[in-house]
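## retry 2 of 3
previous attempt timed out at serialization; input unchanged, resubmitting
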Amino acid sequence: AAAEAVPNVLEKHDTICHVCSNPGSDEADHVIPLAEGGADTAANMRPIHSEPCHREKTAGEAERARRTRE
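## retry succeeded, writing output
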């Protein structure tokens, strides 16, 4: 799975967060979420800060999912 790709994703993109554009990301994120049909591949992953960027992006994705189910 893509979990093994995280160090390479961070290095390839110089730890620049794809949400806030600042360096120092500590995680890799699926740009197109798996729940929305995104692939679990390094090509669909970019660096992201765990806080607040990943938390806020995930909250937005969860909100979209809730609205879709209503």
